[in-house]
Records
---
Amino acid sequence: MAEEAPFKAHEDKEAEGPLVKTYVLERFIAKFIDILIMGALFAFPTAVGPLAGTTYILISDGLKGGSIGKRIIGLKVVSLEDPTTQCDFKQSIIRNSVFAVLIVIYYILGWIPYLGKVLVFLSWVAVLGIEMVLIYTDDLGERFGDRIAGTIVVRGKNNTIE
């Protein structure tokens, strides 16, 4: 007999326990906010901006209370093994490394006139599309980064670990 997951589907609004699977839209908006913050950091001159933006996107979920976008939306990233434990910096770097790869693709291909920008845009669309499909179709709402890091995004009451 298979063990039941400790998470409830998002349709069950009155789920027992503090952890509830999130909606795709909630996660999309939270990540969009984080990408806006990353973009603002990129505006700093010289190499400081890109380094700060990339660092933020990599470690953001390991910050106390989670990333700024997730805090605003009311989400948190927790360890799948122990849902009472917040995602640490190592897990955050692992789960968000796909976005760092996209930044590297930007720097490698972005210099090519016209075609480079198109390829970078298509790579972002492809990755975000695949991640959203995984979030939507997975029973626990895990995207690729969550699967390799052993994490899950849940709704958090007052953004604290219960």
Note: The CA atoms of residues 63 and 77 lie 10 Å apart.
---
Amino acid sequence: MGTIWSVVYGFWGGKEYNKEIFDELVRIPDYICGSLASMDFDNVEKIPKKHYDLFDKSIVDNERIYIMNIKHGENEDTLSDLKFTRS
């Protein structure tokens, strides 16, 4: 088991591991984060069409995507989830 973890995280062998195995692992969260980051709910016309379409067709009303919201307070942090629904 230790060898598997070392290969996955690259502890041994440094940059010798195949980086392509991580592509599918990070692709979907990267798309979700990119579309969320480009959302401008005050000025919808500024949102790139491909990001708006991804947000509207894949994230809105999708119970399989869990988006965490962290609010940093003066004395404590609050962790909750964000749900996007059509009104």
Note: The beta strands are 67-72, 77-82.
